[in-house]
What we know:
The chain has 10 helices and 7 strands. It is α/β, with parallel strands linked by helices and 238 residues long. It has a domain at 69-229: Rossmann fold (3-Layer(aba) Sandwich), CATH 3.40.50.1000. Helix 4 runs parallel beside helix 7 (132-143).
Amino acid sequence: MKKLSIGRLALLCIALSPALLAAQLHPSHYSPLAPSERITNLDDTKAQLRSYHACTCKCGCYTKDLDLQADRAIAWLRTRAAHRKPDEKLAIIIDVDETSLSNWPEMDKAGFAYDNTVFTEWVNSGQATAVASTLRLYNEAMRLNVSVIFLTGRPEEQRAATARNLQAVGFKTWEKLILRRPDQAKQTATAFKSTDRAQIIAEGYTLALNIGDQWSDLKGAPEAEFSVKYPDPFYFLP
């Protein structure tokens, strides 16, 4: 049996002493945190989202970020239009919700929760405002004689309300307004939007530019020549 040295024995006695044991149990001593402690409090997150939208947040300014992305899209569109081939049918695809139309009042009131019935009532009310950055881009596309195609995840039954709302806020005309068909209801946005892009290309259009607030607006073959992602920390669509 291995004998303990005097030094090790003294250390063992100290470690087992009641005073040291009491110190180890003192409330000022804490265990390591659980991994879930890294998750931000929901109310704090909502407050940050509202602050970002109001441009009062150190995290950034929503309007400024939208303008930055729209400016990038406009710069590309001007360059691309200047190099248009003879008889080339250039087109730009634009998403609707949080890209062309802002649903901020409804989102804010709902606390960023989604209720299909409530959102449908909001859509039918036609109260969504224009995203000013996109309206600038739309007007530039009109000036450059580039076809504008709106491609949205809204269902086909909301066509009339969507068209009225778009026109009321300045998007006066377009080449196509494509909504989700009933047979696409169970598909992800990535799946049905990429299918619709393929159909647009099959009709002879060149997809010069695609604008959307979700990656699912942009990704999935075939893609546009240039895609611009708008910021949207308010919700996520696959």
